[in-house]
Design brief:
Shape of chain B: globular
Number of helices of chain B: 0
Number of strands of chain A: 11
Distance between the termini of chain B: 36 Å
Structural class of chain A: mainly beta
Number of strands of chain B: 11
Order of helices and strands of chain A: EEEEEEEEEEE
Largest sheet of chain B: 7 strands, mixed
Strand content of chain B: over 45%
Oligomer: heterodimer
Largest interface: A-B, 23 and 27 residues
Helix content of chain A: under 10%
């Protein structure tokens, strides 16, 4: 049973499109992270949020704690946004408290 | 700041060989962790440390050892490599996993690609 589920697994978009990636989780959390993994393999932290909404440039992340759901939006997508986007949650239960649980990632390809 | 560094970038081992994957950070971070990334799976935690001298097991610790003698370094040792350990290994660090306000932002190393034959 996956504690963190992302959808879609793969996403192809045309340059300029508005993109949404979803993350659902089944455990109690204290924080949720969105990460970006470049085609070369490097992983970069985009957002960490525990409530509401955060915005950085063309990226917007939202979280609904009651519904156990988060979304990552990309406005005016560009080919350089092509990457794997990973959702990870920080559990607030049991022995794993403090460590991150990762989704499998969403592979985004933006065509020019 | 160099951030989080990992060496080597790529390694080929034979079954039964041992090796150490190096990880270092220069940000004075308390929390360091090792993950493995396999196709079709999310990153999985191998071992982690909340400070010098303190380590603990993650989700998939078997076949791996760690130590944390200094704040900066967190090496991962493969005692007797097996083909099942073929993977990409990432080291990550953050100020803490217990504090709020952005101090839990994760910084990842560039990864080590390991092939065990």
């Amino acid at each position: 049973k996956n504690e963190v589920e992302q959808s879609p697994q793969n996403l192809t978009a045309q340059e300029g499109e508005f993109i949404t990636i979803n993350c659902s989780y089944s455990v109690g959390i204290s924080a949720l992270h969105w990460l970006q993994q470049h085609p070369g393999g490097g992983i970069v932290s985009l957002f960490m949020l525990s409530s509401g909404k955060k915005k950085h440039g063309r990226l917007i992340a939202t979280i609904n704690i009651q519904e156990k759901h988060s979304s990552l939006h990309i406005t005016a997508s560009h080919p350089r946004d092509s990457a794997v986007y990973i959702c990870a949650v920080k559990g607030n239960y049991g022995g794993s408290q403090g460590n991150l649980i990762f989704g499998k990632g969403t592979k985004l390809s933006v065509k020019p | 700041n160099a951030g989080v560094t990992q060496t080597p970038k790529f390694q080929v081992l034979k079954t039964g060989q041992s090796m150490t994957l190096q990880c270092a950070q220069d940000m004075n971070h308390e929390y360091m962790s090792w993950y493995r990334q396999d196709p079709g799976m999310g990153l999985r935690l191998i071992h982690y440390s909340v400070g010098a001298g303190i380590t603990d097991q993650g989700e998939v610790p078997n076949g791996y050892n760690v130590s944390r003698s200094t704040t900066e370094d967190f090496p991962l040792r493969l005692l007797s490599a097996a083909p099942s350990q073929t993977s990409v290994y990432f080291c990550a660090s953050s100020y803490s996993m217990g504090r709020q306000g952005g101090q839990e932002t994760q910084y990842f190393g560039p990864g080590t690609r390991l092939l065990v034959l």
